[in-house]
Amino acid sequence: MNIWNEWIEIIFSFIFFIGYYYFMIRRQEHRIKYCVIGILYSVYLAGMLHFTLLHRVILDTRHIKFFSLNTGVSIYDMSETFYNILLFIPMGVLTPLCFKNIRLKRILFQCLCISFGIEIIQLIFQIGFFDINDLVNNVLGGMIGYSTFLLIKTFLIYKMRRILK
C-alpha cells in the first residue's frame, strides 16, 4: 500500500506541473519566472497532499471535532496548530505570484475551500478527523502568507523607487 501512495503522489505532482506549465506557457512575458513559480506551487501542492491525505492511518470511526474551550493546552495541540498554520503560509505567498490581481478575499476563500476539501476527504475516507480548528488555522496561515507577500512586495517597491531616484 505504501508504494501506491508514492505513485499517487507522483501522478498528482505531474498533473499539477503539467497544468501550471500549460497555464504559464500561454503567458508570453517572463516565461521562465512563471514556470519556476508554477513548479514551486506544484511541489507545494504535492507536499500538502502528502502531509494531509496520503500516508495517513485509516481510523475505525468518523469524528467531527468542534472547538473545545474546556480542555487544557498540550504540546501536541500547540504543535498541530503551528503545523496547520505553517502548511498554508506558502499558499498565501505563491498564489499572488501565479495569478494577477489576487486580493485577500480570494486568498481566504481559496484557503477555506481547500482546507474544507481536505477535512471532508479525511472524514469520508476515515484518514483523520474533520476538525474545525484546522479550518481556522489553515485560513490564518493563508492570511499570514498573503500579508508576508504584501510586506515583501511593498518593501521591494520602496527599495526600487529609492534606487531609481
Walkthrough of the structure:
By secondary structure, the protein is an all-alpha fold. Helices cover 76% and strands 2% of the residues. The chain is built from 5 helices and 2 strands. The protein has a two-stranded parallel ribbon. Helix 3 packs across helix 5. It starts with a helix and ends with a helix.
Helix and strand topology:
Layout: H1 2-26, H2 31-52, E1 64-65, H3 75-98, H4 104-124, E2 130-131, H5 132-164
Parallel strand pairs: 1-2
User: Which overall shape is indicated by the principal axes computed on the Cα atoms?
Assistant: globular
- What string gives the helices and strands in order? HHEHHEH
How big a fraction of the residues is strand?
under 5%
Number of strands: 2
Structural class: mainly alpha
How many whole angstroms does the radius of gyration measure? 18 Å
- Low-pLDDT stretches are none
Major sheet: size, sense and barrel closure? Answer: 2 strands, parallel
Q: What is the residue-mean pLDDT, rounded to a whole number?
A: 78
Main-sheet strand order equals: 1-2
Report how far the terminal alpha carbons are from each other. 61 Å
Give the helix tally. Answer: 5
Assign a percent range to the helix content.
Answer: over 70%
